[in-house]
Amino acid sequence: MKATHANTCANMKPGRCCRHWACAIVCLHTKRRTCGRASFQELRNFEAALSAEGAELPGLRAADMPQSSAARGVFATRSFEEGELVLRIPQRLCLQVPLTPTSEERWPWQPPAPDEALQPVAALAGRLLECRRGGSLPQGSAFRRYLDLLPGLPALHPLRGWDVKLCGTLRHLHAEAKRRFTSCLASRAEFSDSDFRWALGMVWTRAFALRDSLSLVPYLDLFNHWIPQNRDDPLWSCRLQEFDNAVGLVADRRIMAGEELNHLYSEASDAQLLVQHGIPPKVPSANPFNEALVLLGSEVLESDSPELCQARRAALGKLGWQPACTEWPFLVPSDAQEAGSLRALASLLVMDVDLLQAVAIGGAIQLTASQRRQSCKLLSKWLKEAQDDLEDSQPLLEDAVEVLADSIQPVFASFEFEALSAARRWSRMLAEALHFTARHLRRGCSRLAPSLWASTGPCALEAAALAMADQMRSQGVYPAGRQDVEDLQRVLTEQKQLEIELEQELHAARLQQRRLTMQLSEAQARRRQTQQQARASQSMALPAKELQDLAQVRRNRGSTPQSRRTSKGQKRTPRKSRESPTLGRVALQAAW
Fold this sequence. Notes:
Elements: E1 31-32, E2 36-37, H1 40-52, E3 60-65, E4 68-76, E5 85-90, E6 95-98, H2 101-106, H3 119-132, H4 142-149, H5 167-184, H6 193-206, E7 208-209, E8 213-216, E9 224-225, E10 238-243, E11 246-251, E12 260-263, H7 270-277, E13 292-297, H8 306-318, E14 327-332, H9 341-348, H10 353-360, H11 369-405, H12 419-438, E15 441-442, E16 450-451, H13 459-474, H14 482-540, H15 544-558, H16 581-591
Helix pairs in contact: 1-4, 3-6, 5-12, 7-12, 8-10, 9-11, 11-14, 12-13
């Protein structure tokens, strides 16, 4: 990080992707426990000791940051090509404890058994205390020099400026955290509370979660997190990688001589970097992982129909939501995407009672084009309101960022906490409040299944996280910069494009319906014509007996005299002699 005043904790979930799950690494506070800031000669001796013990540090040099002598980083003394080794530290030079499968799967976002999630952290802190008192060290003398360079316990401050109604929750969480860590470190009762706080602080801010162990890796914690100053800045230069019995960094792109070497601690937003690593956000922010917070109240479920309102709550409860919550936090653009929980909520609110009942029993739902259009309009309305809120609170956000940049730590009301307690436990709660919104359970994209705030954690923690999310937004402490507004604008643009596409689909469907209607009309006309012809043919076709009778009548007529009497008694001219004169002349001429 870019400043040495960071002292918040970052409990990050151990994972197998070492590039993104390095556990809470911050810039090494190069201070002795007694005489303060370490000299460059001590750093050179430390680098030489590491090299002598088998570490590879080709072309690296720790130095002060150009813009501030209060912070340090690692710089390249030569160029590196992409994929080239930058740093390699043998694991025998590291202080390690195993990660239990249970803690690796659960820690820290899902509540484990009372103490099992903290066992690796407490175990590593206990080993660090033993090494500090002269116990068994990793092989070689490099780790002893590393211990001498570790800073003392920083001056932590209670968090102030928050709603008093959260005091009770924080008191409870503070007492619970103290009890759990005390039980984890009960076997090392010979150490003082300040020793415990120092050791836990070092582990929280420096340990790496590797595949099978939680480790303190000498020299690796000197590398800063990648923070872009502008949107066109190059990406991070290195990535974390495990080797056979070693851990280190590899060049992720071409690195020029004199360039600072950094890597990505995690794909964290400005808010996460603040609460996990104590890194103040930039204004305007250029962090590509920023997301904006959108809060929706439970009043969106209300309806004039009590049956519809009850069906909505039943469907949400079945899908793992907590309908009793007064506000639901969402992160955009992730939650506004096709499989996001914000999009799912908008879809649920346009359903009728029958569809909601189908959702409640786990059936797959297919919305009509009209319903999809309504849900998109509803989502656009929410995002537009959130954008307006962000623009209104932008001056407050910038003021809060300036306060943080000046090292003035926010504190909580007038309630006093112990140094470790409060800042670190509060920071973990803030991190959980943010991560819960992004790490909600997903049950597949083929059906609507949002489960934000599923019943996987204690109610007190959920309530505190919700209240804190609201406080962070309303009081401007949530470090949402202009990036958030741009994210919302991008999402709104996507929603408008989706509405246009839906309108085009609807127009195409109407044209297709017209064509089908015309084809149906033509088919019906042809059918009627065919039926008429069939009836006409049927009426003309007489039975065989009737035909025979008609033939007999005609034969009988042929056998009668050719002349008939008129009504006046005159003799009728025979049929053959009644030829016209013209026809007679023609017949005579032909005979001639």
